[in-house]
What does this fold into?
Amino acid sequence: MAVLLEVRGLEVSFPGRGLPVTPLRGASLEVGRGEIVGLVGESGAGKTLTALAVLGLVPSPGRIAGGSIRLDGRELLGLDEESLRRIRGGEIGLIFQEPASALNPVLPIGRQLTETVRAHGVAEWGAARSRALELLRLVAFAEPERRFDAHAHELSGGERQRVMIALALAGGPRLLLADEPTAALDLSRQAEILDLLRDLRDRLDLGVVLISHDLAVIEETCDRVVVLYRGEVVESAPAADLFDRPAHPYTRALVAVMRAAVERPRSRSPLPVVPGQPPSATQRTNGCAFHPRCGERLARCEQEPPPWIAYPAGGVRCHARLPRSGAES
It folds into this structure.
């Protein structure tokens, strides 16, 4: 599979009192053409910040302090703002979490699509309406002409999210970044949106980064999964392997919580949680950031950063996955 997006050693920093704050610390991931990659982790892990960095939209006063972001082999870091504007929406589409707030409440959805198509230079005014109707059909509106002049408040939550996906596709991107696209939807509408994303991946040969806190959504939808903890990738694996045989203690804890949530209606046992709290971005750690919460921690975990242990189809960042010496405990 051809690599579409390649992120290597991505570091994002913000000014702090004394030393800078680094909410992303050397994150790396790949997305192939026709592949859906899930990006998971607790709040503050760096999921959305990773997507914003790929788009060159790190909020001020933050900055990308190191690493590489390549799209189809082209380095994006260092491009001027005009070049980045052409890439945003043109080569990379972004699906927002809250369509109700992202859509313009005043303009009809057809007008918003038409103006977006024109802004990306895909079609002039005369052909832009036809392209907008085509996009609505592409995201499964059965009667796009009837919905073309509707406003956002006249649509259901699932319909609004499909409009957001159509807007993300307006420039003909090769990569979609979907940030919690089903978080505001009920289960039946979630399933519709996930089916649509898979269908679009297949029909358009898109690469997709699916950001979600919901591991059940990730397991159902993704080909591979990347797990972030405090701005670092701690595990990467094919989805089937990661959910059947999670290698990192943090991933195992997340999967256990997900499985328990699924079983809870049939059980009276309390819902488990990942013990402890993740460290803030301002906390300094010498070793593994997860070690205070980890039931498998070793003596070295508090002082030595864990190495990345590569597997044929992924890897894990954990001292406990290395061969143990007799002196360790």
About this structure: Residues 41 and 280 are 14 Å apart (CA to CA). The mean pLDDT is 91.
